[in-house]
């Protein structure tokens, strides 16, 4: 496989690079803020993940067959658009989702939840290089990764936030489930989901939402993510990394298959009127 790769090839949303034999980098560049649209996910992110896994597995099979003690290593970094230092991802293009009833009722169970499951169970360590704001589904995307490295916001502000409460949107089961899975403190869950708090990088670190803070711009965040990748890339050598994650996160995986429709404040009020 020859890198870099672009998905889709005619109008790339995602670029995949392979800096060394045990590291892959997926860069999101659906505009500056990398909103998670259907086209972006289906035509960009999912095929990019497939390409990384295929390339790793091709090398892993050779290493496993030869009983190598050093082969089969790997780690994946996901980073926001490298041409800016403002956004990791600005979340869903909410208006485009809710404006079309057909999309609104199928987006999570058909489009977004499979992406979440794909990243959560990815067979090599995944690191979100959060080089700016991670809002709503952008924050969720980072939580699906195994590790998170974030800018300290010294160049410009950077926040993590689930802001649905502020515009009257409900949270699908899959999103609440990944929050419960990755955030064990109920007070922190409340702050995320019910208060829509904007976490500064320092607050995110203190709350365990991220693993490391980096002083600097996007390239500094990527460099720190690469340092972290070097310390964990040996873990999938024997092929059980993704297998263990499927059991570790079984509750989330089952929950994410149960989303059947989207609910918001308006639909909740209609149901309440019918009930009361």
UniProtKB/TrEMBL annotation:
> SUPFAM superfamilies, per this entry?
ClpP/crotonase
Gene Ontology terms: biological process: fatty acid beta-oxidation
One cellular component term from this protein's GO annotations in UniProt: peroxisome
* Family matches, as CDD domains: crotonase-like
Q: Which InterPro entries match?
A: ClpP/crotonase-like_dom_sf, Enoyl-CoA_hyd/isom_CS, Enoyl-CoA_hydra/iso
- Which one of the record's GO molecular function terms can you name? delta(3)-delta(2)-enoyl-CoA isomerase activity
- Give the family this protein belongs to, as stated in its UniProt record: Belongs to the enoyl-CoA hydratase/isomerase family.
Protein name as it appears in the record: ClpP/crotonase
UniProt organism field: Meripilus lineatus
Q: What is the lineage of its organism?
A: Eukaryota, Fungi, Dikarya, Basidiomycota, Agaricomycotina
């Amino acid at each position: 496989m020859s890198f870099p790769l672009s998905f889709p090839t005619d109008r790339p949303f995602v670029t995949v690079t392979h800096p060394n034999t045990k590291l892959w980098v997926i860069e999101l560049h659906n505009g500056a803020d990398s909103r998670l649209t259907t086209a972006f996910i289906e035509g960009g992110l999912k095929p990019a993940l497939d390409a990384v896994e295929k390339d790793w597995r091709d090398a892993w099979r050779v290493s496993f067959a030869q009983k190598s003690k050093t082969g089969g290593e790997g780690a994946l970094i996901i980073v926001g658009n490298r041409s800016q230092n403002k956004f990791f991802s600005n979340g869903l293009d909410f208006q485009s989702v809710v404006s079309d009833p057909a999309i609104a009722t199928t987006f999570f169970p058909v489009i977004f939840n499979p992406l979440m499951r794909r990243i959560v169970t990815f067979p090599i360590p995944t690191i979100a290089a959060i080089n700016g704001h991670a809002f709503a589904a952008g924050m969720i995307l980072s939580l699906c990764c195994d590790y998170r490295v974030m800018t300290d916001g010294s160049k410009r502000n950077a926040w993590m936030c689930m802001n649905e409460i502020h515009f009257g949107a409900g949270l699908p089961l899959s999103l609440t489930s990944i929050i419960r899975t990755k955030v064990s403190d109920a007070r922190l869950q409340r702050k995320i989901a019910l208060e829509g708090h904007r976490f500064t990088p320092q607050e995110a670190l203190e709350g365990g939402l991220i693993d490391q803070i980096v002083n600097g711009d996007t390239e500094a965040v990527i460099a720190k993510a690469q340092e972290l990748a070097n310390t964990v890339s040996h873990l999938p050598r024997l092929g059980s990394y993704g297998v263990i994650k499927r059991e570790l996160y079984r509750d989330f995986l089952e929950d994410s298959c149960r989303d059947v429709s989207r609910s918001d404040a308006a639909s909740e009020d209609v149901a309440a009127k019918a009930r009361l």
